[in-house]
Design brief:
With 320 residues, the chain is an alpha/beta fold. The chain has 2 domains: 8-138, Rossmann fold (3-Layer(aba) Sandwich); 164-316, 2-Layer Sandwich (Alpha-Beta Plaits). It has helices at residues 15-27, 39-48, 65-79, 94-102, 114-149, 164-181, 195-201, 204-221, 250-262, 292-301, 303-309; strands spanning 8-11, 33-36, 53-57, 84-89, 107-110, 184-192, 227-232, 235-242, 265-267, 270-272, 276-284, 313-316. Strand 4, helix 4 and strand 5 (107-110) form a beta-alpha-beta unit.
Length: 320
């Protein structure tokens, strides 16, 4: 069975294993197969044309498989593409594999099992890659259609996320849900503090790419049912329901804050980093429910403290 629409890229500095992999997948009917002898060469190839599946050795001299995975994820983020990453390894043990999964690797294959398992793993990766990229294309088409037609006043035209009025309505809904069913409403205000200085250094196109990439990353970091919106040119918000107000704390969202700040975003102007503040505000079902505007204003009032200290602020609503 031919798989002519599936683009594969094999990265392996060992000629013997590279030739063996290439022979297996060619015999299976794959015709769009490229080979790279190093991670840097693979990244150049992906810059020129994306791949659906990347097969790479975990251990490579210049950059290991995990480093390559992080670089590929940055390329994917910038191009609105998904690359299924399969690492070849001789390693054993769950701890190493768990760490690699956390870094964005999709699957592993022990080299000793390559002949028996390579093709089944590729077929699974092919299905997932096709599905994910179809969803990304459909979502991008919706964003572009909404931006052109401007029919949905609740959407931010640049990112396709909800705007301030959308966030206000959904925050009110979440507060009501907590009041009737228990739990806590958690409101996260994320402010890009040096966006204006970046605007002076880069074109509008580059800044737009940066904001879109930040919105995509934020959407990936939160839970599927959490609400993400862009309420101002320099601000995103996340609205979430937690079982208890104790879970609305700094530690719960530290990883989100670090992910936004520590990993650079790829744009046509190069890799750019963001500096963001995070203000957390929560309300408990046990208290008199606040208005959505009250929670928003409380978060805004704590913005300066976060700017000055560089720390995440967390406040629980107190009824007056």
């Amino acid at each position: 069975m031919a798989h002519t629409d599936t683009a594969l890229l094999v990265v392996d500095d060992a000629r013997f294993s590279s030739v063996m992999i290439h022979r297996v997948i060619k015999n299976a009917g794959y015709t769009d197969v490229r080979q790279a002898s190093s991670a840097s060469e693979a990244l150049r190839m992906l810059e020129e044309r994306p791949a659906s599946i990347l097969i790479a050795d975990w251990l490579m001299p210049e950059m290991d498989g995990l480093g390559l995975t992080q670089a590929v994820r940055q390329l994917d983020e910038a191009s609105n593409h998904f690359t299924y990453i399969l690492l070849l390894t001789a390693r054993e043990g769950g701890e190493a594999l768990q760490h690699a999964f956390e870094q964005g690797v999709d699957d592993f294959l022990n080299k000793s099992l390559m002949n028996e398992q390579l093709l089944p793993r590729l077929w699974a990766g092919e299905r997932l890659s096709a599905l994910q990229n179809r969803l990304l294309r459909d979502n991008q088409n919706l964003i572009e259609a909404n931006a052109k037609l401007k029919k949905l006043s609740s959407l931010d035209a640049l990112t396709g996320l909800g705007n301030r009025s959308y966030a206000l309505a959904r925050l009110g809904d979440t507060i009501k849900h907590c009041a009737s069913r228990g739990g806590a409403c958690c409101y996260l205000l994320i402010t890009m503090t040096h966006l204006e200085s970046l605007r002076k250094q880069h074109s509008t196109q580059v800044i737009s790419q940066l904001i879109v990439a930040a919105g995509r990353r934020l959407r990936q970091l939160v839970r599927p049912l959490d609400i993400v919106a862009r309420i101002a040119p320099h601000q995103f918000v996340v609205i979430t329901h937690q079982p208890s107000i104790e879970q609305c704390n700094v530690q719960s969202y530290r990883r989100l804050h670090e992910s936004l700040n520590l990993k650079a975003y790829k744009t046509t102007g190069g890799f750019l980093s963001l500096k963001t503040t995070l203000n957390i505000v929560a309300s408990d079902a046990a208290l008199e429910p606040p208005k959505a505007e009250d929670l928003m204003q409380l978060a805004e009032s704590r913005l300066q403290a976060a700017r000055e200290t560089g720390l995440i602020t967390c406040d629980h609503w107190q009824a007056s």
